[in-house]
Amino acid sequence: MRVNLPKNLLAEKLVLLERVIPSRSSNPLLTYLGLAAEGGALLLFGSNGEVDLEVRLPADVEGEGRYLVPSQPFFQLVRSLPGETVELALEGDLSLSSGRFRTRLALAPTEGYPELLFPDLEGGEGAFTQRAEFLAEELGRALSQVRYAASNEEYRAIFRGVQLEFSERGFRAVASDGYRLALFDLKRPQPFTKKAVVPAKSVDELVRVLRSAEGEVVLALAPGTLGLAMPQEEGTLRMAVRLMEGEFPDYERVIPKDFPLRASLEVEPFREALKRVSVLADKQNHRVDLFLEEGRALLSAEGDYGKGQEEVSVVLEGAPMSLAYNARYLLEALAPLSGQAELLFSGPTSPTLVRPLGEGGYQAVVVPLRV
Amino acid sequence: MRVNLPKNLLAEKLVLLERVIPSRSSNPLLTYLGLAAEGGALLLFGSNGEVDLEVRLPADVEGEGRYLVPSQPFFQLVRSLPGETVELALEGDLSLSSGRFRTRLALAPTEGYPELLFPDLEGGEGAFTQRAEFLAEELGRALSQVRYAASNEEYRAIFRGVQLEFSERGFRAVASDGYRLALFDLKRPQPFTKKAVVPAKSVDELVRVLRSAEGEVVLALAPGTLGLAMPQEEGTLRMAVRLMEGEFPDYERVIPKDFPLRASLEVEPFREALKRVSVLADKQNHRVDLFLEEGRALLSAEGDYGKGQEEVSVVLEGAPMSLAYNARYLLEALAPLSGQAELLFSGPTSPTLVRPLGEGGYQAVVVPLRV
Questions:
Q1: Helical H segments across B187-266, by residue range
Q2: Nearest-CA neighbor of A6 among A100, A88, A95?
Q3: What confidence tier does A95 reach under pLDDT thresholds 50, 70, 90?
Q4: Is B81 within 8 Å of chain A by CB?
Q5: B273 and A306: CB-CB below 8 Å?
Q6: What contacts B342, CB < 8 A, 6 or more positions away?
C-alpha cells in the first residue's frame, strides 16, 4: 500500500489521534497507530480501550492493507517533516519520505488488535441500531457544560459518568457527584427512549472532537457503546466510547421547585467578587457567606489569613436570606454562564438552583453549607 | 503607614516577587511579602533564602514602617481587584480596599526576618565593594546562553552553578557538567579580577529580571553574595543571590585548539534535521551518527522503532570524518544559535567546538560518543 498526501493535512488529523492513543498500555498494541486504505481514502485509527477513533481523509492511495505503526515516533516525525508532502509505503515495514528525510519504521502485526466498530454517518445496517441527529455545537455545549459536576471519587462509580437521556421530550445530559448536579436540556425530540452513562473522561474526548466540527453529527447506540459520526472539512471522523453499566439514582427529586427568594444578577461581576472573597475563605471548607437584601448581595469570608467582603448589586424578589456555600461549588455552577443569570433559593439549608435568565438549557443545583 | 497606588502597577511588580517568595519554607517568615515605605516610595521585598529581591516603586505614601503580609492571598487578590487603585493601610493588620472590595489580612512580626543587603545603583559605601556595569541585554544573554550546560547532579556540586569571571580581559560566564561546556565572553574589560559561582537556579532568576530591564545595570560583589541593581520603567529593582563556595576545575584544557575538519552551516535546517533523525535514536544514549563529506552532512540514527536519515548541506574544510553524538547534547549546544554557525572537529572521539560564524561570544564544547 502506497499513500501520498499533504504533510499539513496528515499532521492536523494526527493531533486528534494523539489524544486517544496511549503512550503506554497493558495491551501494547494499543500504543500503535492504525493506517488503512479504503476506497481511495486513508484511514487513521486508534483506541485506548475506552475510546476508539477513526479519521478518514482524502489521499492518493494505491493498493490496500491495514497496518499498525509505532505511534510515538510517527507523531513526532510528521509534525516536523521538511517536505510539503509525505510519501508512505507500507509492506514489511513503513517507509516514510518527505523532502530529504527518510525513515523506516517497524510495524506490529495486526493480529490481536481489537475490532473497532463505528456508526455510519449515513445510517445503514450494523450494531448501531438507535440513531439521533444533533448540531455539533449544541451537543458539544450540552456535554461540556455539565461535565464538571461528575465525581472523581471511586465511591458510587456511576457518578463518574455523564448520563445522556434520549426521549420524545428531548435530549438531556446530566452529571452529579451526589453533592451538586448539573443538567442541560436540548428541546430536540429524540426518535427513541434510552438512558446511557458515558465516563466523564470519554465525554471530554467527545467534546474535543465536537469542537472541531460544524453542522450535523450523528449519535448512535449499540449494546454497551455510544458512537459518534461527523463530517469534517476534509474527510470524516467517527468515534465510539464504552458505556458504563447502570443508570443514575432518581435525581429529579433533589431539584427544588419552590423558591421564597429569587435573585437575578450580572454573572461576571458576581463571579469576580466571589473569587476575590473566596481567597480569604477557610482552606478546608472554602466557605463564603452570602447575605441578600435590598438589591444587594454581600459576600464575605474569613479564614487563617484574615477576612474579606464585597458587595454586588442584584435584583431580589422575596425576603432577605443568609446562606453559606462552598465557594468552589458555586463558582463551578456559574462557570458555564455569562450575561444575566438567576439564583433561585429554596431556603438557607436547602438546594439552590442556578440557571441563565431567560432561555437556555443549563441548570445547576448547589447545596448550601450548614450555617 | 498608608499607601495609595495604581492596581496595575502593583500587580505588575508583584509578578517579580511571586517568582521568588516560596509558598512553603522551613522558615515560614520567608513565605511573607515585605512592604515598606522609604522616601516617598513603596518597597516590595522578599527572599527564598538563596535569592533576595527588592522592588521600589513610586506611590503616594504616608508614614513609615516595615511590614510582612501573607504573600499567597495578597498575590491572588491584587491580580483581580475591582478598582483602578489600591489603598493599603498598615498598622496592627493590613487593610486593603479597592472598588467595593475590602479585606483585612493578619501581619507577621518582622523580628526574625533576614536582613536583606543589596548594592546601590549609584555606588556608595556598603558591603558590595566590587562593582561592574553591563548592558542588561548583553548580561542577560551571556547568562541565559550558558546556563543549560550546568549539571543537575548532586555529584561535584560546583557544576550546579554558573561561574562568572571578571578580569581586565573581559567578562565570562561558563557552565559545565563535566561532559559538555558552554561559555560566553563579553569583551567589556572589568575593573577587578574575581571568579564567582552562582547556583544555576539563581541564574534563572537573574536572567528573568534582566529581561524586564533596558540600558545599564550594575553587578556587585560582597562576601558570599552577588548583587544586581537596575532601573526599571517605574522604580528600581535590586537582587542579591548567594554564591557557591569554590571555583571550577581548570576547564580551559578541554577546549580543543586544532581542528582537522571545519564545517560551516545554516543552523536552522541542520537543527531541524537533527531533531527529526533523533526521534529514531536509541532511547538510552540518543545516538545520532554524523558523516561529513563533500559539502554534505549525513545524519542517521537507528533504535527500537527503526531507522532514519537526512542529508543537510554544509561547507567543509578538511578531510571527511564520521562521528556520533548524544543528540540532546548537540541540540542544546546549538540552541542559542541562529543564522550561520561553525562546527569545529578536533577528531572523531575528541571534543567538538560549536560557535556562531563570525563575531559572537558564545562557544560550546560537546564530546562525541565513542563509535
A1: 200-211
A2: A88
A3: very high
A4: yes
A5: no
A6: B262, B263, B264, B265, B353, B354, B355, B356, B357
Q: Which CATH superfamily is domain A2-106 in?
A: DNA Polymerase III, subunit A, domain 2 (3.10.150.10)
Question: How far, CA to CA in Å, does B32 sit from each of B16, B21, B55, B107?
Answer: 14, 7, 15, 9
Flag whether the pTM goes above 0.95. no
A347 touches chain B (CB under 8 A): no
Q: Give the pLDDT of residue A104.
A: 97
**Residue A138 pLDDT greater than 90, yes or no:** yes
- Residue A308 to residue B102, Cβ atoms within 8 A: yes
Q: Is B28 on the interface with A (CB under 8 A)?
A: no
Which candidate in B31, B103, B288 is best for mutational testing of the A interface (most A CBs within 10 A)? B103
Residue B235 has pLDDT above 90, yes or no: no
Exposure of A41 by Cβ count < 10 A (0-12 exposed, 13-18 middle, 19+ buried)? middle
Separation of alpha carbons A173 and A184, rounded Å: 5
Q: Mean pLDDT, to the nearest integer, of A246-274?
A: 96
State yes or no: ipTM above 0.85: yes
**Contact, B120 vs B126, CB < 8 A?**
yes
Of the candidates B196, B183, B190, the one whose C-alpha atom is nearest the C-alpha of residue B248 is B196
| CATH code matching the domain that covers B130-252, chosen among 3.10.150.10, 1.10.3210.10, 3.40.50.300, 3.40.1360.10 | 3.10.150.10
For B199, list phi and psi in degrees, rounded to 5: -55, 140
Can you give the residue ranges of every domain in chain A? 2-106, 130-252, 255-366
Using an 8 Å Cβ cutoff, are B67 and B74 in contact?
no
- Specify the pLDDT at position B233: 82
**Residues with Cβ within 8 Å of residue B284, at least 6 apart in sequence:** none
Tell which CATH architecture fits domain B255-366: Roll (3.10)
